[in-house]
Amino acid sequence: MSDDQVGAAGPPAEAAPAQAERGTTLRASEEMIRDALSEVYDPEIGIDVVSLGLVYGVDLDEKGLLTVEMTLTSPFCPLASILESQVHAVCLPLPGIENVRVDLVWDPPWDPRTMASDEVKLELGLY
Fold this sequence. Notes:
alpha+beta
C-alpha cells in the first residue's frame, strides 16, 4: 500500500476541508475501496470477501453514493446483515463516500473454484 493510500484512507479532520477550499475533491479509487473491503471477513469461513471473490463490482457516483455489488457464499447465509454492516463500516470513512448501498446479487452464483483467489483455493483445498 502506498503512502498516498494510507493517508487517503484516514485523512486528518483538518485535511479534507483544506482540499475542498482549493476546489479539489478527494475521491476513493476502486483500489482503495477494494482494499477497505478486504477488511470484511466471512465469519463462517474466516477469509475476506474480496479474496473469496464475493465482491463483483464497486461504483462510486458523483454524489458520493458507493454501490457494492456482491454475493454471499449461500443465498441462505444467516450472517448477511453482519457482512452488510461491515461493508458500511469500512467504506464510509473513505474520502468522497457519503453513503453505501450493498446490492446482493445471485447471478452468477458464487463458485470458489472460479471466483476465489489462488491463495483461497489452496486454503480451501480446491487444487
